[in-house]
Write a structure and sequence with these properties.
The chain is mainly α. The chain contains nine helices and two strands; from the N terminus they run ααββααααααα. The protein binds heme C.
């Protein structure tokens, strides 16, 4: 009985499935190829990019302005979240282009609070994310088109955040100076000071303005482009904590 069960259990059906391996030939089709060529004049599901503004940010080859869908609080929140993930390492949370990677020596990233970028059409931000810009790599593979638009919308909010006046706040809302908030939160006195990219950072484009070097007395304060070498973990045999 056991021998019989063993023989039955040894059927090879699951191993010898009738299937084609990629790039392997077959005699089934006349052209000898197992993979079927794409049918002419067809578009794969979800790849019909009919709304070209949504996918390129361009209208007749020029950067368009405006969001291709209604802006809602949800869109802005999503934009903020994606921006903080993908853009802050270089552009910083406030978008001044002095993120941590730049402080460590990467090319100075764009500052969104210049007059040029404040008046740039929304499609420009989408286009930069989609195709890259100078020293900036493209983010089309990591960030979906709808998220790129959400980020573009959030950049507009960031731009306002750096220049907002109490009059921009809806009536009835509570307005408090940041210094008061900083004090209440027990933040260091230096919290509100601007920060500057160290001289070790390089300018983004060869044509860009060279960075101003810090005054001689200040140079000692600038951090080195190289992080301090890691100390080996203690010999206690513990896995170092991440
Ligand atoms: C790895 C660093 C890095 C990351 C991450 C990054 N950027 Fe940039 N970005 C740069 C650099 C560097 C420049 C300046 C490029 C130049 O001038 O050559 C730049 C420039 C820009 C500009 C200005 C273009 C102009 O017209 O001057 C915009 C807008 C921009 N980035 C948007 C974004 C957005 C949005 C994200 C997140 C999806 C992002 N960047 C992520 C490095 C980065």
């Amino acid at each position: 009985m056991i021998a019989l069960m063993a023989t039955v259990g040894c059927r090879q059906d699951m191993h010898d499935q009738p299937k084609f391996f990629p790039q392997r030939g077959t005699t089934l089709y006349a052209d000898g190829r197992s993979v079927r060529p794409q049918s002419a004049n067809t578009v794969a599901r979800s790849q019909l990019h009919q709304d070209s503004y949504f996918y390129t940010g361009l209208v007749d080859g020029k950067e368009g302005d405006g969001l291709p869908f209604p802006v809602t609080e949800e869109v802005l929140k999503r934009g903020q979240e994606r921006y903080n993930v993908y853009c802050t390492p270089c552009h910083s949370r406030v978008g001044n282009g002095e993120g941590m990677i730049v402080q460590r020596g990467y090319a100075k990233a764009g500052d969104f609070h210049t007059a040029r970028l404040e008046s740039a059409p929304l499609g420009h931000f989408f286009h930069v994310m989609t195709y890259g810009y100078g020293a900036m790599p493209e983010y089309a593979a990591q960030v979906s088109p709808v998220d790129r638009w959400a980020i573009a919308a959030y950049i507009r909010a960031l731009q306002l955040s750096q220049k907002a006046q109490p009059a921009d706040v809806p009536t009835g809302s509570h307005v408090e100076p940041l210094s008061t908030i900083a004090e209440q939160e027990g933040l260091p006195a230096t919290f509100l000071q601007g920060w500057h990219v160290p001289a070790t950072a390089v300018t983004g484009t060869p044509t860009g303005e060279p960075l101003a070097l810090p005054a001689p007395g200040e140079s000692a304060k600038t951090t080195s482009a190289q992080p301090a070498p890691r100390q080996p973990a203690s010999n206690s045999g513990e896995t170092p904590k991440q």
